[in-house]
Amino acid sequence: MRKAVRVGKVIIGGGSPVSIQSMTNTPTVDVEKTVQQIVELQMAGCEIVRLAIPDFESAKALKQIKEKVSIPLVADIHFDHRLAIESIKNGADKIRINPGNIGAKWKVQEVARVASEYKVPIRVGSNSGSIPKEFEKYERSVALAEAALREVRYLEEVGFENIVVSAKSTDVLETIKANEYIASKVDYPIHLGVTEAGTYEMAVIKSSIALGYLLLKGIGDTIRVSIAGDPVKEVVVAKKLLIALGLRKGGQVIACPTCARAEIDVEEIAKKIEPLVEKTNLTVAVMGCVVNGIGEGKHADIGVAGTKSGVVIFRKGEILKTVSHTDLEKELMELLNSVMNEKT
Ligand code: SF4
Q1: For the complex shown, is ipTM > 0.85?
Q2: Residues with Cβ within 6 A of ligand 1?
Q3: Does one domain contain both 73 and 214?
Q4: Phi, psi at 163, each rounded to 5°
């Protein structure tokens, strides 16, 4: 089992559930906007939020932000180690430093001394876009991993072991290989992510393959799905990814792809009920017809299947009733609520 690292109220590693992270994209100095986005992220299911700290004003803003939110905050530091120290003093629950640009060993160790005093963990996070030159002789995934591991050794030299490690590439296979390499060398918890994964669809595909593969192999203690745009989407995808992998409980809608036999608008119904189902631990099947629908949806807690004259509602494969298309939504919501009440 990997070591456990405490980030505010969240434990990373040590057998704890895989936690979900995201990052704000508001200017950190704009306290009001940043707090608003953090609250949105938290409501979507985010458990740890990272903020960019590009200057001392941002490090100072961290203090005001921290007073207004209840979620652990991570200060993301590049280039200037003094920003890491300032962020720790202003209440950061964790620091992320990039081995590719933080500079000399003494700077890293200086950050470690302050982090140690404040009991704040450090994530050493290497990125494929900023691998230090001296590692270029290695194959890229090894270079990415070794860049992070060198920084880990710098921290260990001063007795600092409150460490999380990450190695992120824009490339799926590089991300996988780099993290397998790190997992074989150290037992610190691992933060997983594909960096600069792209816009929505490609980002979801790349993250699902890399993170899914690694998590199924037992590698990874906290994740960030990186998507260009609204970070709330990152959290929604991360949650669904963990549910799909069976690493987290949660409601889900299964829906047939439809074909010429479909008697109902499967997509419309599925999308309508999804927000409610996601608040439960139920699986709800929406199937276009009764020909295959009831059989294929029998593992679901609740299911619906279209017929020529109406919609059949079934539970664990047993038909409960047939309702008209117009009554479907109301009937389904009533059944969902009553099944939820039974289970609580
Ligand atoms: Fe087609 Fe019916 Fe299967 Fe949906 S459940 S794909 S409509 S056969």
Answers
A1: yes
A2: 256-259, 261-262, 287-289, 291-293
A3: yes
A4: -120, 140
